[in-house]
Design goal:
4-stranded antiparallel β-sheet, 6-stranded mixed beta barrel, 457 residues, alpha+beta, 14 helices, globular
Length: 457
């Protein structure tokens, strides 16, 4: 409270003091109350201490570990995949994606880069730096279903099934209060000569030979999935759901189930028409603290070089680069509910659903406050150059009171240089001009904005 008095926080977030007090009182009254963190749809990164601040609010009102509050996502008891360090102990590879991006600055990189159903040449983290890093890779292999920006740069493309064509295993989705495992069977026949991505990786492992082939002993992808499901059989927990049990769980009733399968073959057969679940598993948070209860000070962080503020949450986002006089605005990427935010291209009918103040023909709109636009001499619909220290984009201006003064908002999901005529060259890609930052406390990558300027062209 001393470091962040109400007037300071009000100015910082642009919300008046009375509204902050009102929300705080309402939050304290409601049970269970839940504070969420993350940006956009929840897939954009945030700092460690931003998450800790939200968890502290949840702990303050007793929502951590409580029914209807914050609970861990329960996982089914599947058998583990092979440990890659044991399978290929001599392999040399970047420890993280950030390490690979750093290698783009040097004349060294991995001999082979295998990219599985991702599109880093489009985004979200520093696509220009990723493409620069490819120059230091001898061979680029891409597993995927689409000729996206990354596939266009690959030396080899291994075509994978589309999601409606493939066989796969799915685990507990976000928000589910009990562990789930179900078998995703193909809904459509294959249109082209493709395979499940897992099948492709198995075949590559066999071709590699040696310890790699030994570490992936299954004949095909289905056998590999069955091997994982053996963990459920061995656990002697849960059951394959039937209509009666599923309805009771949906109604909020306490349901306890016993295994309704004797062996792996029977479980696998039943998974063809339903899903394994364990609604009787009691969810709990295993607090790694001396008291076994929630604490507001994450003292354990000190042991790994974090928690410099006695383990208490505080905002420690890395500062954005660039001269504030030259770049007086803050560019904020916006995730739209109807558009894929990261690598996958949008379907044509989704692009058609965009409003006229979001996309007109091939021009994307950047949202700006009328007050900010007036200072910059900009009017509704004019073409403007959106520049950051990382590059520039051409956009149209959309004036809206929903935009905070001093900020400019640009949707993600457009600006593709790949795919078909319905998506290619429509709009601009904000990932190209965002600044990727390292969380000071964890060294994880964050990409939430950039200093920017907006000028008429």
């Amino acid at each position: 409270a001393q470091e962040y008095p109400l007037d300071f926080v009000s100015d910082l977030c642009g919300v008046n003091q009375r509204e902050i007090v009102s929300v705080a009182k309402e939050f304290a009254k409601v049970s269970p109350a839940v504070a969420l963190w993350g940006r956009g749809k929840g897939s954009m990164p945030d700092t460690l201490f931003s998450a800790m601040a939200a968890l502290a609010l949840n702990g303050l009102v007793g929502s951590v570990g409580a029914k209807g509050g914050v609970l861990p996502t329960p996982q089914p008891p599947l058998a583990d995949w092979p440990d890659l360090k044991e399978v290929a102990p001599s392999a040399q590879s970047p420890k993280s994606y950030l390490d690979f991006l750093n290698s783009a600055q040097a004349a060294s990189g991995p001999e082979i880069l295998l990219i599985n159903q991702a599109n880093p040449a489009y985004g979200p983290v520093a696509p220009a730096l990723f493409k620069k890093g490819l120059a230091n890779v001898s061979t680029v292999v891409c597993i995927g279903s689409y000729m996206d920006e990354t596939a266009q740069l690959a030396d080899y493309i291994l075509p994978a099934d589309a999601f409606l064509e493939t066989l796969d295993g799915m685990v507990t989705p976000r928000g589910m209060p009990y562990p789930v495992f179900n078998l995703v069977s193909p809904a459509l026949g294959r249109l082209y000569d493709t395979k499940p991505a897992g099948e492709i990786i198995l075949q590559l492992a066999k071709a590699a030979g040696g310890s790699v082939a030994e570490g992936f002993p299954w004949e095909d992808w289905e056998e590999a999935l069955k091997a994982r499901a053996q963990g459920i059989v061995d656990s002697k927990r849960g059951a394959v759901s039937d209509e009666e049990a599923a309805l009771a769980v949906a109604e909020g009733k306490d349901v306890k189930v016993a295994p309704n399968f004797g062996d792996l073959d029977e479980l696998w057969e039943k998974l063809g028409g339903s899903a394994w679940f364990d609604p009787g598993q009691k969810l709990a948070v295993d607090f790694q603290t001396n008291s076994g209860r929630f604490t507001f000070s994450a003292a354990g962080l000190k042991g790994i070089g974090l928690g410099k503020n006695n383990g208490f949450p505080r905002p420690l986002a890395a500062p954005l680069s660039g001269d504030p006089k030259k770049f007086p605005l803050i560019l904020v990427p916006v995730e739209l509910l109807i558009m894929p935010g990261e690598s996958l291209g949008a379907a044509p009918y989704l692009v058609k659903m965009l409003r006229d103040d979001q996309l007109t023909h091939n021009d994307v709109y950047a949202d700006v406050s009328p007050r900010t636009a007036k200072k910059l001499g900009l009017k509704q619909g004019v073409m403007a150059r959106l520049a950051t220290p990382q590059g520039s984009l051409i956009v149209r201006v959309n004036l809206t009171e929903a935009a905070r003064p001093g900020a400019v908002y640009l949707p993600v999901g457009l600006g593709h240089s790949a795919y078909d005529k319905f998506l290619k060259n429509k709009g601009a890609n904000p990932y190209e001009v965002l600044e990727f930052l390292k969380d000071k406390e964890t060294n994880e990558v964050s990409w939430w904005g950039a200093r920017a300027s907006l000028s008429k062209v």
